[in-house]
Write a structure and sequence with these properties.
Aspartate Aminotransferase, domain 1, 3-stranded antiparallel β-sheet, 2 domains, 383 residues, 14 helices, globular, alpha/beta, 12 strands
Length: 383
């Protein structure tokens, strides 16, 4: 049976070049980077070089602005809770945070926790019908105690690219009239193939993930612009500029930096290829006479993600059928896929009934037109 992977938004394989860069740090250069002897310094050099490489890719000003973590979830927790704790425990002010209702669970559940423990007030912006967040609505939600706006860069289920630059510009304009600044965080886990220049984007905090860009699982980062006040979540040592205690995962950090380097060098080529695959996929849909409808709006979305509505079949039936044919897709973000619930993101925009019949297809470097042909041959026999 064929095995076809169309779930690259959930995770990617590790590229050969990335694995090759990591291998020496598992056995030859295995020292603890905090150790003062040669073995430790050799490992530390690997971390320092990785940090320098990523700093240059992001156009960050300082090395200490790159903070390595274990995952997107940890990075988002550090950004949001770290800032909320600074205001609540440090300044004795209950902070107000503005986010959207279609964020990843690692943002929404952090905000829910802060509300449940009465540590912060949260405002949730609803998306427009085109799945974009209307950044002008942020102005109507601003309060005296507003400290953070957190809006994702690329939506994990629909692929919509949010107006990050415009949001940053708006916040900068608002800050000119305020004594205490509002900081801007974006979850960029799905945005590895987009513009990551933090100076052009205007973000104060940005989460990035390794395993979405053909790097290893178990490592991510949080960009923290100099001057953003965060309280660390883990205590125990002074690693990561005192923001993240724990021995650095040296091989993973080295692999993450190599994956980012490859993407940065090949970004135009990668996006052109993904666009070609996506456009080929969309052309195939036209022959199904309304049995397949786009939830994603391609013109404003990442080329790697398409979310589709199947009026005659439930997402659960489709997942089981496609899996039996060796085709891997998902009903939504991997962190929620085991819950067997309709996508809350599709529900928020198109309604719950439509979300029950929707699937996400996501493409990668190895996706071929032949695989797309096989997928649609299978769908012809099921729809």
């Amino acid at each position: 049976m064929k095995k076809i992977y169309l779930d690259f938004a959930a995770t990617t394989f590790v590229r050969d070049e990335v694995l090759e860069a990591m291998m020496p740090y598992f056995q030859e250069k295995f020292g603890n980077p905090s150790s003062l002897h040669f073995f430790g310094q050799e490992a530390l050099r690997g971390v320092d070089e990785a940090r320098e490489k990523i700093k240059n890719i992001l156009r960050a000003e300082f090395l200490r602005e790159i903070v390595f973590t274990s995952s997107t979830t940890e990075s988002n927790n550090l950004a949001i809770k770290g800032l909320a704790f600074y205001y609540y425990f440090g300044k004795k002010i209950k902070p107000h945070i503005i986010t959207s209702s279609i964020e990843h669970p690692s943002v929404l559940e952090v905000c829910a926790d802060l509300e449940d423990f009465d540590i912060a007030e949260i405002s949730y912006l609803k998306p427009e019908k085109n799945s974009l967040i209307n950044f002008e609505k942020i102005k109507t939600e601003i309060r005296e105690n507003t400290c953070l706006v957190t809006i994702h860069y690329v939506n994990s289920e629909l692929g919509t690219i949010q107006p990050i630059k415009q949001i940053a510009k708006l916040i900068q304009e608002i800050n000119q009239q305020r004594k205490d600044p509002i900081y801007f965080h974006t979850d960029g886990a799905q945005a590895g193939f987009e513009n990551l220049n933090v100076q052009e984007l205007g973000v104060d905090l940005m989460t990035l993930s390794s395993h979405k860009i053909y790097g290893p699982k178990g490592v991510a980062l949080l960009y923290v612009r100099k001057g953003v006040p965060l309280i660390r979540l883990f205590s125990g040592s002074e690693h990561e500029h005192e923001l993240r205690a724990g021995t650095e995962a040296v091989p993973l950090i080295v692999g993450f930096a190599k994956a980012m380097e490859l993407v940065e060098n090949e970004k135009e080529k990668i996006n052109a290829y993904l666009s070609e695959i996506r456009n080929y996929f969309i052309e195939k849909i036209k022959y199904f006479d309304g049995k397949i409808i786009l939830n994603t709006i391609p013109e404003i979305s990442s080329a790697k993600i398409l979310n589709l509505y199947f009026p005659t079949r439930s997402s659960q039936d489709l997942l089981i059928y496609l899996d039996s044919k060796g085709i891997a897709v998902s009903a939504g973000t991997a962190c929620k896929s085991r819950a067997n619930e309709p996508s809350y993101i599709v529900s928020d925009i198109y309604g719950k009934e439509r979300s029950k019949n929707s699937l996400r297809f996501s493409f990668g470097l190895t996706t071929t037109k032949e695989e797309i042909d096989y997928l649609f041959d299978c769908l012809k026999n099921f729809l």
